[in-house]
TrEMBL record:
Intracellular or extracellular location(s): Membrane
Keyword set includes Secreted: no
S-adenosyl-L-methionine among keywords: no
InterPro entries: GLUT, MFS_dom, MFS_sugar_transport-like, MFS_trans_sf
PROSITE patterns linked to this entry: MFS
Keyword annotations of the record: Membrane, Signal, Transmembrane, Transmembrane helix
Source organism of the structure: Vidua chalybeata
Name of protein: GTR5 protein
Superkingdom, taxonomy of origin: Eukaryota
Membrane topology note: Multi-pass membrane protein
Position of the signal peptide: 1-27
Amino acid sequence: RKKCLLCNNVLMIVAASIMGCSKISQSFEMILIGRFMCGVSLCVPLHHQYVGEISPRKLRGFANSTSSFFWTLGKAVGQISGQRELLGSQSLWPMLMASCGLPALVQLVTLPFFPESPPYLLMQKGDQEGCKKAIRQLWGEGQHQAEIDDIMKEKATMKNTKILSVLELVKEPAFRWQLYMIVTLTATIQLCGINAV
């Protein structure tokens, strides 16, 4: 999880640099390439997953909701910064385009000091000691055996679960309504007013 987030941050910094240099290069294509790279980035779902996995069970819902809060706050700051009086002027808009690299840079610098996700260490790597160390680093000293047992139960459940490919998921009738709901929500999210907020 952590390595993937770090790679995504590098991608975002490269995209921000490309967009920031578009005016100097006099190339609108660089803006298109940079925006495409931002869209390809997996930062949002990975961030939700990592934050959810490193949070204690009683704070997991709150931690996941903070991700959405900061995402919306970032959009609001972007809208405000885009005003002509700030970074939306003729001379400063490249800085506005490149500003998406700033949070990625902060995360790229700070994330190496965070431990890997405990469920990832235990379920995918089979590293029980690493999992215990990560839990102690994240949640402090104390009895965390119940959380480790929960992760072990989840691992046992996952062994009996068949992982479907995208094509198999689309063809599976049992998941059809859930898939319709997700596609509808994703397709209409821009109509819900999040940009206005």
